[in-house]
Amino acid sequence: MMRRPLAAALALAVLAGGAQAQVADLRSTTALRVCADPAASPMSSEDGSGFENRLAELLAAKLNLPLEYFWFPQGMGFVRKTLRDGNCDLIMGYAQGDELVQNTNHYYTSTYGIVTRTDGPLAGVDHLTDPLLKGRNLGVVAGTPPATHMARAGLAKDMRGWDLFVDRRTENPVGDMLKGVKDGTLDAAVLWGPLAGPLVKQDPDLQFVPLVKEKGGPKLFYRITMGVRLNEQEWKRQLNSLIRRNQPEIDAILHEAGVPLVDDYGKALKP
């Protein structure tokens, strides 16, 4: 007669195996299914104009699969309602180390930076401890790492905070900050490079300077991965291989879009 602990262990093993098979079965074999925010320009957009859209198109072409989207606003519950519910098999643009998804290898590294007018008095500023920033109207996304650096540099009273976790279909915090710099309402804005860089590239009156000279924490650079379900090891390996073999094309898309790329340690710009 089988002893109860052994029987229980075998039963759990069978259940675990079945759960893994069920998770694996969620992935489509007939299309590359991507979940994305429909209004997160310049990264993703329902009209296909974002640089993440172009990267997804590259992956789909390499996989010889059609590209399909499941659109959902980025915010609380995004992973649960998209990837975990089986509505897609891939999320683009996830910071390395996020525990809600299984990360692929990173396919680029970027950093926060400072946006100023090209002809303004702060055009030469490249670090947050520059005395020229004192007494200026400075925009920053509330709760982001550079806000900590700015407070430590004595700029807390000069900071105006924006909330990034809004429905981008109706609100545009990054666009509002850039508009403020352009019209002089703000003297500078400190923003995540992939959000600001492509938009600044389109405006000759503005410039984006990567913050690669900051000392101490928190870090201002992040390695960006793709997110898949936690148990889909084979799918992750397939994506890692695609990233490795197509890195030059990935870099070209990001450079063309205006995404500031830095080395893996956030110390220098990547050519």
TrEMBL record:
Origin organism lineage: Bacteria, Pseudomonadati, Pseudomonadota, Alphaproteobacteria, Rhodobacterales
InterPro entries: Quinoprotein_dehydrogenase, Solute-binding_3/MltF_N
Domain of life: Bacteria
UniProt domain Solute-binding protein family 3/N-terminal: residue ranges: 31-257
NCBIfam families, A to Z: ABC_peri_MoxJ_2
Keywords associated with the record: Signal
PANTHER family (alphabetical): ARGININE-BINDING EXTRACELLULAR PROTEIN ARTP, MEMBRANE-BOUND LYTIC MUREIN TRANSGLYCOSYLASE F
This protein's record includes keyword Signal: yes
Keyword Transport (UniProt): no
Protein name: Amino acid ABC transporter substrate-binding protein
Organism name: Paracoccus sphaerophysae
Signal sequence, renumbered to the chain: 1-21
